[in-house]
Amino acid sequence: MKEKITRQLALAIVLLATVLISVSAYFIYSTKDDIKQQNKQYLSEIAVQNAEVIKNTVRMELDKIEAIANIIGSREKFDVDYALAVLKAESKRHSFKRLAYVPSDGNAVTTDDVSFNVLGRSYYKKALAGESNVSDRLTDKIGGNFINVYAVPLYHKGHIYGVIIATKDTNVLSELLKHNSFDGEGFSYIITKDGSPVVNTVHKNSLSSFDNLFDSMRKNHVDENLIAELKRNMALNKGGIFENDMSDVPKVLAYSSVGINDWFVISVVPKQVIAQNADRLINRNVTSAVITVIVMGALIFFIVVQNYKNRRKLEQLAYVDSITGGNNFNKFKLLAAEMIARNKGKNLYMIRIDIDNFKLLNDMYGFREGDEILVGINQLLSRMDSGRDLHARLSDDNFIWLVNCLTEEEAVSKIRQFNDAFQGTMSQDQKGYKLGFTFGAYKIHPKNMDVDKIIDRAAMAHQSAKLLHADPKVVFYDEKIRNDAIRIKTIENMMYDALANREFVVYLQPKYNVSTSTIEGAEALVRWVRDGKVIPPSEFISIFERNGFIVNMDMYVLEEVCRLQRKWLDMGLNPVPISINQSKSLVYSKDYVDKLYGVITRYDLPARLIEVELLETIIHDNVTELISIIRQLRRIGLLICIDDFGSGYSSLNMLKDFDVDVLKIDREFLNNAEISERAKYVLAQIITLAKGLKMIVVTEGVETEKQAGLLKELECDTAQGFFYARPMPCEQFEKLLSVPGGTRTFESSREDQLNHELT
């Protein structure tokens, strides 16, 4: 009986084991097919993603070239030399192999002095017909490398005036396809619909080279029906996936249209790679039949983990920031679009954040410290999000933050909460420095739910916030910011042509001897006259200082003043020194002193006729370098003036360090001295101190007779202001110099100016 029970139990165990093994086998084989399908789907997603990357990259390159064409075509008169100069500059900036302007005869004018004709090239014909495009793979006549040619139409006054072409190595596109998919076993091509290669690969599992993919498939005995289906789908711009045995290695291919020309991305992985995880599970299950239940659980767990890892690998490539480990900008845009749509654009603010002077932090403490700061910011934002908000690192030290807030006040409170929490962490970690932040915020409206436009408007507010002096710096977008951005862009579009067309006009404001009321000098000021209207300096000087064009402006004014002084000397007049303002960007530029000396020498001027005005605020930026610059300027004979003395947080100590000729006192000193005996005493002591240091003292902003009398009482040397004379055209100032004896009292100057204004 016992033996019977034992036999029955053994039979039951065998049957149970058989059932369990069968179920396990069935489950594993089913799972294997699922894994294969998922991996195929992932491969298809890689192909689609690669196609999108290629498309966006080509579009960005065309956008760059169209922008270059717009710069060239926007001039009033088309100039090939100017076009070539622009192309050479942009070629270096954008790492093009070459840039060229091609007129209607097809003869290219290139940046590397190579001559060729592109009249028969299809890319040239398309661009000449108004279509920006990129060529298929071509062989460079110079060097023999594979290249792609980007071509855009060049418009001038509404008409196509030729074509701008740019050449880049095809390797640039090839690099975009190099990603470590399927543990390095996957690779990608780009081909045309007819099978011709656009971008090849040197991957170990790929065809080393081919002239036509379809021909190579036939040579490798791929089923003709598969080839026909592939061609048919490509003709319809459809993607797909199929298996084949090319090069005696079974592979899975996924293909997707790029959307440019007739290009398709082909992403490939050996079939064995897709199947190997599932095969390993089956072998493990067979060898572990006695513990089938445990193995089944382990296999299920392993499958889930593998599935998760594969998905994580793909997401890591597309959606994870390499420094913070959080969402990157691509993932943020996807999630932000969903969140905005879900909230219907209500009660949401897009905030752009960046760290002030982050590059300086990297220079002083190293990139590792900078990366730790970025990670810390990401972690703080994660703690603050609480599942209701989104954030990501945008680029460098820029973060983007989408927050749920009912009001602007609540958004400001959230910003301050972030700032205070971060500063608290810095203090707790005993960092030896402090970081400030700039925030630009935009309140999302239901009528504007486009993520890119929303981010752009937050960026515009962020740009305005950079001009503030606060901690933290916070600005919310409004129409004024938009209008200011349009105004700035308009001015920047006009400024180079305005300089070339001499629209910037130099005015001179006389300086008078306080005791004798005779002219001792003048200050050169600039007015922008366009279409008969005067654009005041307040509208453009700050813009030029931000974009660097102020350097061009300063050199232009120097040139104009030297030309005037040379003219007056040739006329036999007795010109007086004219002061010119020098921006920080110019003063600290390379070869600054040589540039000034070159202009003055060209006009054969006595150097003492030019007075260089240095704003007090730039003196503290680099004292050692500025002392050296001043010594060089004095060595060539120029007069040096410290302008706006007293406008900043300066110390009288600076007067002992800087050997200058003129000290120009800020108008606020004079205004305060009128109403305060204490301020009057301070002004008197500054004048006395400066004279003791052999400096000429100039006070600007003199507007009343009472102020002029006060300066005379304090024995100030020279005065400048509306009481004596307003800024005047150079022709009017020339009349003052023409008075016999070479001097002119300010009373006569004011009378002449009044007559000039009345006429």
Structure commentary:
It is found in: Cell membrane. This protein has 759 residues and is α+β, with helices and mostly antiparallel strands. Helix content is 51%, strand content 20%. It has 26 helices and 26 strands. The strands form four sheets. An eight-stranded mixed β-barrel has the order 17-18-20-21-22-23-24-25, surrounded by five helices. Strands 1, 2, 3, 4, 5 and 6 form a six-stranded antiparallel sheet that branches. A five-stranded antiparallel sheet has the order 8-7-11-10-9. A hairpin with a 4-residue loop joins strand 7 (187-192) and strand 8. Helix 1 (2-73) runs antiparallel to helix 7, helix 10 crosses helix 11 and helix 22 packs across helix 23. The model is unreliable at 753-759 (pLDDT under 50).
Individual helix count = 26
Low-confidence stretches: 753-759
CATH architecture of the largest domain: Alpha-Beta Barrel
| Tally of individual domains | 4
CATH superfamily placement of the largest domain: EAL domain
Relevant terms:
single chain; 759 residues; alpha+beta; Beta-Lactamase; Alpha-Beta Plaits; 4 domains; 8-stranded mixed beta barrel; elongated
Describe the structure concisely:
The protein has 759 residues and is α+β, with helices and mostly antiparallel strands.
Helices, strands, pairings?
Blueprint: H1 2-73, H2 80-94, E1 98-102, E2 109-110, H3 122-128, E3 133-134, E4 138-139, E5 146-156, E6 159-169, H4 171-176, E7 187-192, E8 197-199, H5 213-219, H6 224-235, E9 240-244, E10 251-257, E11 263-270, H7 271-287, H8 292-319, H9 329-343, E12 348-355, H10 358-365, H11 367-385, E13 390-395, E14 398-404, H12 408-428, E15 437-443, H13 451-465, E16 473-476, H14 479-500, E17 504-513, E18 519-530, E19 533-535, H15 537-547, H16 550-570, E20 578-582, H17 584-587, H18 592-602, E21 610-615, H19 616-619, H20 623-635, E22 639-645, H21 654-657, E23 662-665, H22 667-675, H23 677-692, E24 696-700, H24 705-713, E25 718-720, E26 728-729, H25 730-737, H26 746-758
Helix pairs in contact: 1-2, 1-7, 1-8, 7-8, 10-11, 22-23
